[in-house]
Design a protein that fits this description.
CATH class: Mainly Alpha
Shape: rod-shaped
Strand content: 5-15%
Number of domains: 1
Order of helices and strands: HHEEH
CATH architecture: Orthogonal Bundle
Structural class: mainly alpha
Length: 208
């Protein structure tokens, strides 16, 4: 660690550094507040979407169980094969205070269910439920990834705020105070020295 230089230039440099540190602290605090608000919003969305997904899974299992009373497993597999989705999943980003939150976009080609056998209301229901469940799962994945990214950055931001609060800013303030105290002491010492020299010179002049 570099030693403190007891000069007015150093005091000025540290004062400017302190201003920047406090400005950075203010920005990081604002960022942390926004991230915390966003975090609570995401947690609320997470809970709601988890409930939707669990409900969808229960409905899918129930619909599949009812369909299995009418069709064999092989026939159900054929229905599934002929009704596979043609889809595209892309990922974009939303910037929140410098944090890149992912946004998934799931698009699929809407098409009428195909029936290699006789049409069934049970199969219609299964297709509808599973397509809705896929969309919910993509949305849930987006929320979970967003939550992970947000928590990581929030933790990092909090560490930086704490470092500024408890280490960096107090250290700069302490160094400034120490320099100013030392400069005052040096000024007093110089004043005393000058006074002693002046008194000595006056005595010498008076005696000559």
């Amino acid at each position: 660690m570099a030693e403190v230089q007891f000069t007015r230039m150093e005091a000025l440099r540290l004062k400017n550094k302190l201003k920047l540190a406090k400005k950075g602290h203010k920005v990081l605090k604002k960022k942390m507040d926004v991230l915390v608000m966003t975090l609570f919003d995401i947690l609320k969305r997470l809970k709601g979407k988890q409930e939707v997904v669990l409900k969808g899974i229960r409905e899918a299992e129930k619909a599949l169980k009812l369909a299995s009373l009418q069709y064999t497993e092989a026939e159900l597999m054929i229905f599934a094969k002929y009704n596979q989705l043609t889809y595209q999943l892309t990922a974009e980003e939303k910037n929140i205070m410098g944090v890149k939150i992912p946004q998934f976009k799931f698009q699929y080609q809407e098409k009428v269910p195909y029936y290699p056998f006789l049409r069934s209301m049970k199969i219609d229901k299964i297709i509808k439920i599973y397509r809705g469940l896929i969309l919910s799962l993509v949305e849930l994945a987006e929320i979970q990834v967003s939550l992970k990214v947000l928590l990581q950055d929030l933790k990092k931001t909090k560490r930086r705020v704490n470092a500024l609060d408890h280490i960096i800013i107090p250290k700069i303030e302490s160094d400034i105070k120490l320099i100013l105290q030392k400069l005052d002491e040096m000024e007093r010492e110089n004043f005393i020295k000058l006074k002693v020299l002046k008194d000595a010179a006056e005595k010498q002049e008076a005696s000559s």
